[in-house]
Design goal:
single chain, mainly alpha, 87% helix
Length: 140
C-alpha cells in the first residue's frame, strides 16, 4: 500500500508541475523573452512554441492533477495514513480545480478568481513540499 501511495504521489507531482508550467513560462516570456529577444530569434520561436503547448494543455494537466490527487487520497485512506498536511493539500487542489472549471465554463479570462487561481498554485507547491517532508519523516 505504501508503494502505491508513493507512486500516485509522484504522478501528483508530475501533473501539477505540468499544470504550473503554464504560469511559470508565461511569467518568463513577459519578463525576459519579450525584452531580450526579437520575435524572429530561434530561441524565442522555440520557447513560445513550448509555452503555447503548455497553455493549450493546462486544463488537461489540471484535471489529471485533480484525478491523481483523488486517487492518492483514496489509497492513503485505505492505508490508514492521512496526515493533516495531506487533507489541507487535497482541499486546496479541489479548490484549484474548481476555480479552473469555473474559469473555463464561464469563459472568465480575468478577474479575482484568476488571481486566486494563480496564487493558490504556488501555495499548493509550498504545502506539497512540506507534506512530502513530513510524510517521509512520519513513515520513514
Amino acid at each position: 500500500m505504501a508503494e502505491t501511495i508513493v507512486i500516485v504521489g509522484w504522478f501528483n507531482v508530475l501533473f501539477f508541475t505540468l499544470a504550473l508550467a503554464n504560469s511559470v513560462l508565461r511569467f518568463f516570456n513577459i519578463r525576459f523573452i519579450n525584452k531580450h529577444y526579437k520575435n524572429t530569434d530561434n530561441f524565442a520561436i522555440i520557447y513560445r512554441k513550448i509555452m503555447v503547448f503548455f497553455i493549450q494543455n493546462h486544463r488537461w494537466f489540471g484535471i489529471a492533477t485533480g484525478i491523481s490527487v483523488l486517487l492518492h487520497f483514496i489509497v492513503a485512506l485505505q492505508g490508514d495514513f492521512l496526515p493533516p498536511t495531506g487533507i489541507v493539500l487535497g482541499l486546496l487542489v479541489l479548490a484549484q480545480v474548481s476555480l479552473g472549471v469555473y474559469g473555463f465554463y464561464f469563459k472568465q479570462r480575468t478577474g479575482r478568481w484568476q488571481r486566486v487561481h494563480r496564487v493558490n498554485g504556488y501555495v499548493i507547491m509550498i504545502i506539497a513540499i512540506v507534506h512530502v517532508i513530513l510524510a517521509v519523516r512520519e513513515k520513514g
